[in-house]
Structure formats: structure tokens, C-alpha cells
Write a structure and sequence with these properties.
The structure is a homodimer.
Chain A (H helix, E strand, L loop, with lengths): L2 H7 L7 E6 L12 H4 L3 H9 L1 E6 L9 H8 L11 H8 L9 E10 L5 E3 L7 H14 L2 E2 L2 E7 L4 E7 L30 H18 L7 E8 L7 H5 L3 E5 L2 H9 L3 E2 L6 H11 L5 E6 L1 H8 L2 H19 L5 E5 L16 E7 L12 H4 L5 E4 L3 H8 L9
Parallel strand pairs in A: 1-11, 1-12, 2-14, 9-10, 9-11
Antiparallel strand pairs in A: 2-13, 3-4, 3-7, 3-8, 5-6, 6-7, 12-13
Helix pairs in contact in A: 5-9, 10-12, 11-12
């Protein structure tokens, strides 16, 4: 749906929408059943009979989405138009708050030899503890460069984030990480004319890092990639006239929600905590994005049983969500993560929409294969928000 | 999927993909069953239960594709963006090998009266034998014109191909065939400035042809249309990093495969020959396009029973393909050719994809109507290659 058409149709009302995202929900069969089929989900199955079902696709058929594009699509933003740089995503993942003028780079602690040739792109996967020590050292020695404030933040093992805060930082420079061993670190090159000064700054930074880390046995350089700013996205308030809130236990998802202007509600670590947060805030917002992480995590581990368990756990909380009487409840995944593949996959997401204005599909259960038979068909995930707005009667008629 | 995005995602591995195209596979019911439903296909039905099914559409809903656009779509090229001229398609159909600098024109032997008015656009559908004689005569008398080498090639009845080989030939001139009787042959007009010289050459050619054929009772002119060059298409190697091979018994399909950079494997006349060729070459390529012509031919004849027979014959060879253990096997048509309509039609193609990474749809048989229930849904045929690449794990994740 084009933004300018949607803008003319959208209207406010007092309805409440809940978008429950079970990360990596979709799966593939092992012994004949997918995780969702194997799970005992009396509540989800009951909703599948009362709701409209379908299969949503984040980017395009056959394309496996990362978490960034998968969420942007569900939020109604074209994930090809709005690409989020690796540096920004990594920064969001550790809970960093970025200003639109900041640059974020994903860094790898790495080893180079005396001639500058990369011998190990991951510095032997140094420990996270050692990573933190090196970040403290770099922070102490290089807190700024030419009036640009620098921050070095440890992620896991060899991964770090470098944040650049200052005036006139321009996005559009190439990586210094050649993504190969046996080569030298690359010069950052301006990909657009305006980025010349920023590229030069990043090259000076690499030089300074090498000076500081010289002689360090564990890692003596940092390779940078995905040097990026947060993309400008019209907010949920602008685009949908929705006061929206995010309930998520993992920083990256809170960061993604913040990009689209959602308020981030403090919550605990468990699904129960998240449901409590939903209940406490239910009167204060129009739209809730509720994110359950563990489905994806166990899928990535190839742990079929534990993924089944997470889905069953979510199922037990469904009645509590129902008792809040949201006008629209959508239950879906951002992407599939079959335990069989131990990673994200291209398979479309089971999608369930419940409202008093939807066509009940009378399906007997909620699964990848039953959703094939649903009235929503297979559709781009970017259309999900429009369906939610329609079902909450927040869209006027198009034309007379 | 946009080419530049696909290019960033595609990667090589050792998987094998087989695309089996049963030309004109889809049909319409006569006495309640389509050809595919009436055929006994125990092997295809078994695969339909293990694979993911759907319906693919070559150009757009309701649009009946020719063989050129139908194949380009299956190969992943937008058939509206890449249009193949009539002259080129006709030349490929008789096995002519075209260089990118060659022009090919479809010709009609025709009759004109003394004032140049066309009295019969098909010269009374002269015999193919007579057509050949006239081509030999023209070839002898007009082997070249202004350093452009000419070839006259008989097709069937009144149809011929005129090939122009030379420097500086430009595509973009109008037809000389007015497609109407009672009018004069048209002047070829340059549709772009650069084609002025080529248009003038074609007009001289018409004049020369008329001089040579003057007084011939059967046909005394040739009307030209679709004067075209082969379109530039990025090859399978460039686009998908696939070493690809074509196994087809008919020249046109070999020609189409060559346009996208496939290697053409010599084969015999029967399905058995084609399967043998597949077996012999299975270790040497990543991707095989295997084309079965007869489904379409019998559909065009309105011969329901023989089309059923071809489908049943293909079915008996399925186990031999399975024994090769391709990582991805797709079985579909390029377009539908219902015997009922005696021609190509707009109905979408039954599509079956088998891989160990697909969601098995548990369908009870392979047919137009069962494919409606499949998890792939109805989708543009241009997405088929992306699905094959995904299922062979040849695509990286999009975004992080």
C-alpha cells in the first residue's frame, strides 16, 4: 500500500491492536510434524477456527530474511527500500541508543602480521571478557578523533561495535574488513563524494587502533564493516496514527521498534513478565508489539523439543491476552527458523488474525500447513499492518 | 526479486537442480477430468505428497504466453522486460545460431499484383517443398547486399526466415508486412535514428527479392516482420552462479536456453534419450533444464488421449530422475495447453518442488486442482528460480 494513499485513509478510534510475534515461528517437519504441529496448542487452535489465517512472506519468495528486514516488513515498511546497516543493527542489539547523526560500525577484533596481512579475522574468537578489556583500553586511549566522540562496545567473543558521534558524519563509505584472511585491511573509500571526510576519519581511526593494540597478543586490530546510520522511517504515529508500544526482552527488537517510533515498555525476562507488562499498559496505547524471542533461539540451536515447548508456553498465555479483549489480535512469526535447518529460512510465516470483523476460516488447528488453506492466502508481510488497521476499523473507504 | 539484490545473496555449492518442463502441461477437463487428472501418474502423485506445490503464472493472470515468454519467465527473466522478436524466435525454432550482431526477420512468401497490391499474404500456403526451392533461388541470387550476408531459410508452408549478418545492423525498424491484403508492401521505417541505414537496406532487399521472384507463379514477394536481434540477457552463470545445461529435442527450446547461457547437450528424439543424457551429464553441471515437447503438441492438436499418454510416459521416467538424487527437482509446465482449447492458454501451471528443505504439502495427487491447495500458492513463474536456489541452499540471508 502506498504511503500517500494510506495516509488519506487512516483514522483514529479507541480500538486496541496486539501483534504477537513468536520469533522464528515457522518450521519444517521432523518425523512428519513441524514444531507448531507437534506442539499442544489448544488455545491457538481454537483461535485458528475463529480467525482468518494465511502465510506471510517478509521479503520475497525464496528469500531468507534477517531479523531487521523481517520486522520492518511486519511493521509495514518495505525491507528492500529501508535497509538497516549491519553496524546499526549490531548497536541496537546491545541496546545502544542512536541519534540520527551517529554512525555505527560492526567491528571484528582480528590479528594482522608485521606487514599488515590479516592472519585471523576473528582473533581466535577471543573471550567476551578479553573483548571487554580491549574495548576499555581503546576507549581510554581513543575517546575522540577530530571532534568526533568515539565509543567502543563489546558484543560477544570477537564482535564489537564502534560508535561515532559528531557533526557532519556521512553514511556511504566502504568496509575496512576485506572479509578474507591473507589480505591487508582495506582503506575505507567514500562511495559518495560527501563521504570523503568521514572515510578519511575512519582510516585515521584504524591507524590509531593499530597503534593502541600494537603488541597485544590476543588481537592487534579491529576490522570495520556496515558503517551506517539509522534509516529515517516515518513513525507509527505519522504513518498509522497509532500510539504504539513495544514489549520485548531482547535489545535488538526494542531497537527496531524504536526506529519506527514505538515506546519501549520496561519488562522482565519471561513471557509471563511480558504479558504482565501488556496488561498494565493496555489502556495507554492503541498498538502493542509483543515479541517472544525463544522460538527463534531454539530453532537456531536445532532444538526441536525446546522450540515446541516455547510454543506450548506461549499457548498457555493466550487466554490472558484474550481477556483483555483486543479488537485485533495477530499471532505470527517474523520469519521461519526450522530446527531442521538450524537457522532462519525462506518459508512463509503462519499468520492468524482475530477480530470481530474477520472471516472465520474454521480451520481445525494453527500450523504452517493449515494456514495454506486460510482466507488470507499467501501475502507479503508488508500488508499485515493494513489488515490490522482494517480489522480495527481504522481505515476509511477508498474512493466513493 | 531485483537482480542486484539477488546478486548479493547468491552463492555456489555442490547441489544439483533439475527443472523438468512438460510443455503445455496444464489442461481443462473433458468429461470431468483434465489430462493430468485423467493420466495414471503414481510417481508424480507420490512426489506431490512429499513436495511443495502451487500454481505458477508466466506473464500475468489471464495472459496466454507464447513459448518464448513462458520459458523466459521460468528461467527468471521478466518476460515483459525481455521481449524476443518474432524473427529471432522463428530462427531459433529452426535451429539457427544467431550472433548478437545478426538481424533475423520472419518472412511470408506472398503474392502481389502488377501494381504491388498484396493479393495473398500466404501465397496460397505453398508447399514446404516449393518454399525450399524459392529459398534456394533467393540464396543463389541475393547472397549479399552492401556487405551484409543474407540467408534465406525455409520453415513450413509459406513461412521463412531471412537472416542478415554484417556490421552495424541496427534493431528498430518497422515491418514491411502490412498484415492485410489489398494494400501495398510497406516501406521499412527506422523507429530510431540509428536504424536509418538498416531500414534502407531492408527496403533494397525487398526490391531485389521482387526482381528475383518476378514472374514466379507460386509466390512473387516476401513480406517481412519482427526484424530483430537476440536480446541481451544476463546468463545463468552471471545471475545465479550456475553451470547450466539444456536437454531438449526441439530447436526452439535449445535456442531459448542458449540465450540464457546454458550449454546445449546433444540428445536423441525420445524422452528415454533425454533421461539418458541427464544421467550421463549429471555430475558436470549444477542445473539441468529438461524439456518434454509432446505434451504441448498433442494439446495443440486437441488430442486429449495422446496428451494423457505423454504425461503417463513422463511419469514412468520419474524414478530414474529420483535415483540421481537431485537436491531440488521441479516439475511444471511452461504454459497450459488444454486439448479443449487446441492452443496455449492463460491457465496457471501445476508446479511441484521437491527438496529435503521444502514443506511437504501431503497432497494426494499432482494436478491443476490439487496444486491450488499447495503451500506455494499461486505465484509468478519468474519466482521459480529463486525458490529453486533457496531450496538448494544457494542463497544467503538478506540483511542481519
Amino acid at each position: 500500500m502506498e504511503n500517500n494513499i494510506l495516509r488519506d485513509l487512516v483514522q483514529k478510534n479507541s480500538s486496541r491492536i496486539v501483534l504477537l510475534v513468536i520469533d522464528g515461528l515457522g518450521g519444517l517437519p521432523i518425523n512428519g510434524k513441524t514444531e507448531l504441529e507437534a506442539a499442544k496448542t489448544p488455545n491457538l487452535d481454537r483461535l485458528a477456527s475463529k480467525g482468518s489465517c494465511g502465510l506471510s512472506e517478509a521479503v520475497a519468495p525464496g528469500i531468507t530474511p534477517g531479523s531487521g528486514p523481517a520486522h520492518l516488513a511486519l511493521f509495514g515498511y518495505d525491507p528492500i527500500k529501508y535497509q538497516i546497516g549491519r553496524g546499526v543493527l549490531e548497536a541496537l542489539g546491545i541496546g545502544e541508543e542512536l541519534e540520527p547523526s551517529d554512525l555505527a560500525a560492526r567491528g571484528n577484533f582480528a590479528n594482522i602480521d608485521e606487514e599488515g596481512i590479516i592472519t585471523d579475522r576473528r582473533a581466535g574468537r577471543i573471550s567476551t571478557a578479553r573483548n571487554k578489556e580491549l574495548c576499555v583500553l581503546l576507549q581510554k586511549k581513543i575517546s575522540a578523533l577530530e571532534e568526533v566522540k568515539l565509543s567502543f562496545k563489546a558484543v560477544k567473543e570477537h564482535r564489537c561495535v564502534v560508535l561515532l558521534k559528531g557533526k557532519d558524519l556521512v553514511e556511504g563509505i566502504s568496509d575496512t574488513d576485506p572479509q578474507k584472511e591473507g589480505e591487508k585491511t582495506k582503506e575505507a573509500i567514500p562511495l559518495i563524494k560527501e563521504a570523503k571526510k568521514t572515510a578519511s576519519l575512519v582510516n585515521k581511526l584504524t591507524k590509531r587502533i593499530n597503534e593502541v593494540l600494537k603488541g597485544e597478543a590476543s588481537a592487534n586490530t579491529v576490522l570495520l564493516r556496515g558503517i551506517s546510520k539509522i534509516p529515517h522511517l516515518p513513525s507509527f504515529q505519522e504513518k498509522y496514527l497509532l500510539r504504539s508500544a513495544c514489549i520485548a526482552t531482547y535489545p535488538m527488537y526494542r531497537g527496531l521498534a524504536k526506529l519506527v517510533g514505538m515506546e519501549i515498555l520496561p519488562t522482565g525476562e519471561t513471557i509471563k513478565d511480558e504479558i504482565e507488562t501488556l496488561k498494565e499498559n493496555f489502556q495507554n496505547y492503541d498498538f502493542f508489539y509483543l515479541h517472544i524471542k525463544k522460538g527463534d533461539s531454539y530453532g537456531e540451536d536445532g532444538n526441536f523439543e525446546k522450540k515446541v515447548f516455547v510454543i506450548e508456553e506461549v499457548d498457555t498465555f493466550i487466554p490472558e491476552i484474550e481477556q483483555l479483549h483486543p479488537d485485533v489480535l495477530v499471532i505470527t512469526g517474523d520469519h521461519s527458523t526450522p530446527s531442521l535447518l538450524k537457522g532462519h529460512s525462506w518459508h512463509p510465516n503462519p499468520f492468524l488474525l482475530l477480530s470481530k470483523n474477520c472471516l472465520p476460516d474454521n480451520l481445525s488447528n494453527f500450523s504452517e500447513r493449515s494456514c495454506c488453506q486460510g482466507s488470507l492466502g499467501k501475502f507479503p508481510a508488508t500488508q499485515a499492518m493494513v489488515l490490522m488497521l482494517a480489522n480495527s476499523l481504522r481505515l476509511k473507504k477508498f474512493g466513493a
